[in-house]
Amino acid sequence: MGIESISDIRKREIVKAFYNTAIREGLENTSIAKIAKSLEIQPSLIIHYFKSKDELVTALIDHCLELYLQIFEKAYAAHDSKSEVLKSLLHSMFSKDWDALFDDGVYYSAYAMVFREPDIRDKFSKIHQTLRSKFSLLLQECLSSGIISCEEPEVAAHHVFSLVDGTYFYINMLSDEASQMEHLLMSEALALEIIGFKK
Amino acid sequence: MGIESISDIRKREIVKAFYNTAIREGLENTSIAKIAKSLEIQPSLIIHYFKSKDELVTALIDHCLELYLQIFEKAYAAHDSKSEVLKSLLHSMFSKDWDALFDDGVYYSAYAMVFREPDIRDKFSKIHQTLRSKFSLLLQECLSSGIISCEEPEVAAHHVFSLVDGTYFYINMLSDEASQMEHLLMSEALALEIIGFKK
DNA sequence: CAATTTATTGAACAGGTGTTCAATTGTATC
DNA sequence: GATACAATTGAACACCTGTTCAATAAATTG
């Protein structure tokens, strides 16, 4: 690990520039020329590393989805007891951290592609399923150690995930940050209720 | 009412063609030329009715958001008792009808614009708030007539709306329709629980 | 140092973008 | 039936799109 070829560095650099430009201009309005300009390189160099624009988009989405996986892994690494893992995980899911992980505008644009590009649907689907089954497993473990009390942990995992997705979809339509925060707290409380978390 | 000038007919026709093309090609990949081609007219005619492409996008979003308002109005018109209205409304919110109202890919692309275009954010925000306060009022009425039992109808309305948004976000990542349906039913059940609906 | 591979440039490509404008057709109004 | 107005065309605009390709610069290998 650690050793990275020039090629890999450039690739990451390009994906990053793609991401930053997409935040400003929108994912679909971000051309190879714009990315190249922001890096002060030629467009053809980008094509040299990513054979087509599709490949670039794929790389960005892969990067994005990996970030969400990392949140889970971090929560597991940071705490010993399942109880602590669950608590910190839930809190980060309903916090601005989770929201700040990846730009929402870019995320929803990428998500919109799910409906046209089967490959992208698979990517999103896979990650979502991975995260949910990890969470579901955690709930089962917490249930058997008596930390939580819900009837069906599998179902509860579904509910919590829907609630997370919906909450962020929702709060982005609220203009002031105070009501966004308020709504996040409300949703977190509901999530705790759904899984039957004992204080 | 009913009388529609040629101008209005063409405008609606253009927005409809825009929508249909966007379903296939994606909202951002839909050019004026493509819309014109699908209608077998000249691009300049579209500009004649909508001064710019931005105006066209705005018209499409307006049309979309109005559809969601109509679902609410239909539920109110179709039933006399508040209990019936609530039941039918909840059912349509968690059914494929709601989902089929507007193409998801186009919807999420439009939603992504919320993060770049303040005007579009306002539009989405306004409709969302309107729908939620209508729903909140309904819950309050049902609560006082003893049809439901929740502590805070305002909060319950928030929760149900988050759940709806999240559920559709969620199920679009599921590939087979059976599990989509299953998840919709699960979410509806949770919604009924949240508002304390009595069977 | 020479040979080879990789990184990077710059020009060119055919085709698409939104928009403008004058000219033409069609449709009502007086 | 002439006049006014709206609908529609078609050509033109400058600019941007993704991609190709040969040429050059730089780094790596033998």
TrEMBL record, chains A, B:
Source organism superkingdom: Bacteria
UniProt key word Transcription: yes
Residues of the DNA-binding region: 31-50
Entry keyword annotation includes DNA-binding: yes
Transmembrane segments: none
Pfam family, one: TetR_C_37
Gene3D superfamilies per the UniProt record, alphabetical: Tetracycline Repressor, domain 2
Residues covered by the HTH tetR-type domain: 8-68
InterPro entries, per the entry: Homeodomain-like_sf (IPR009057), HTH-type_Tx_Regulator (IPR050624), HTH_TetR (IPR001647), IcaR_C (IPR041646), Tet_transcr_reg_TetR-rel_C_sf (IPR036271)
Record text on subunit structure and interactions: Homodimer.
Protein name in UniProt: Biofilm operon icaADBC HTH-type negative transcriptional regulator IcaR
Source organism of this protein record: Belliella filtrata
